[in-house]
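Table S7 (text form). Paired inputs.
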Amino acid sequence: PSHSESGRNYVIGASGLVLGLILAVAGFIFYKKKSSADGYYMYISNECLYSKHDYSDMVYINLYVFNKDVKMLFNSTLGFFVGFTEAGVKAANNFNKDQTFIDQLKAEVETTCKRNADNVDSAIRDKTVEPTVIVKSVKQGEGRHPALLLCSAYDFYPEKIKVSWTRDGAEMTSDVTATMEMADGDWFYQIHSELEYTPKSGERIACVVEHASATRPMVYYWGEMKHLSSLSERRCYFPHNINRSPTEPSHSKSERNYVIGASGLVLGLILAVAGFIFYKKKSKLPL
């Protein structure tokens, strides 16, 4: 076979493989749509809802859903089932007649909800995570002072925290602004405090952070890149989830690009091997 013919065979083999993959994916999608459109879906969920530490507001919910429509639910506060569809009303009335079953569901508040909530809280909610803190200078747009210091605390838990400023050990109360604690959406919080100031030679300005994760206030000195407490001395480092500018690539983005590149390489190798095998079979030469 000539080079042009071998190249043509390679292209045909690769094209055939790609076409086969496209048809397989299309068939799978058609099957899923067809089966989901013609089928029925029902699920039952059991939920424990509360917001107080003593679980005095604990509520047990037993929910029945059919084809995305709520059929009926049991609320431990109400103490009976409520139907929301014609079939759900009939089923709810039948369940409510069984007092033994209703009492069993009411007991779920104590036997299931509070017991599991206590286990989860002892493993998660009652734990503390020390904040990662940085102190940096930012540009001042307007104001009476030429400089603006920003103290940011990241990745701490629980939510309650106090951030203050000191100059040579004395607390500063004027020209200080702070945000509320902001939830990151992953159990952790962040907070930011700003200090407008006029720098003087030899003075030491520090951001003081008080949190349940530390037994003493943590003191972060501006320009020294470390924080001090009466018990230990540790370096202050940059947190992993600081918001970056669009020009700064994050680790997650680089990892995503790596995965995409690796996937493209693997797919290319598969297509190349398939085309080579097709070419060899076509030319009737031994592999």
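Next pair, protein 2 of 2.
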Amino acid sequence: MSTQMMTEPLRADEVETHHVQATKGDRAVSTVSHILLIIWAAIVVLPLLWTLLTSFKTTSEIFSSPFGLPKTPQWVNFKNAWITAGIGDYFLNTILVVFSALILVMVFGAMSAYVLARFKFHGNRLIYVLFLAGNTFPIFLAVVPLFFTLKNMHLLNTMQGLIITYVAFALPFTVFFLYAFFKTLPYEIYEAAQIDGAGEWTTFFRVMLPMAKPGLASVAIFNFLGLWNQYLIPVALNTNTDNYVLSQGLAAFAARTNYEVDYGALFASVVVTILPVLIVYIIFQRQLQGSVSQGTMK
């Protein structure tokens, strides 16, 4: 005859809790870490706040009181930057080039990383090593070959040529980043999809790609930041003022009238350039942190 042991759940006040006492060394490390983080945050945030504050001043106020509050917020600076300085056109050009390149590089990069990570074929490792080598190749060494290549393709000084170059610039990093995510996906899920009758394309787009969503979010953010702030490539390959991107437009605006620059509108232009980057990071901050933590756990 068997007996059953009936146990009642313990109340919260009956549960023993053990608190680990922090040592002096732990407290010292924590204090120093917080101090360093506060200093680093000040280094990053204060220039951004000063730039935002200065964008509401007149040029005379900027030079007479660079760290003071504006007497009257000059919203006209943003109007002058958007219309008079042409920042609106440069902004639209940048949106078109960056998002077109981002979509292409994410599609091609995900497909390349998936094939290299999940399929074994002759030359697989060599192709992956070549992608890794692309991450170590300095972009300024490729400017001259890219210039003549686009010239021979009749794509020099065009948005299409700039988009293709951006894709080639971001593709090695995208493949390198997503390779590890696809490598760790369970093979049993792939086999289950094949048994259910899914083809390779269906398996990739409807099964494997959604499972790699954290990695896709992270690499998309990194690529967006890198392409949005790109300066050397458009300066070398895009000299048509109608196709200028924001980085070129800001430099041209600053040098347009030598010492007669409207500095209020110039700082407003900088704010317009920075704002999309901040918005994208704030929106996708949780996805970025989650994907990085998952990548470290893998």
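Residues 77 and 265 are 4 Å apart (CA to CA).
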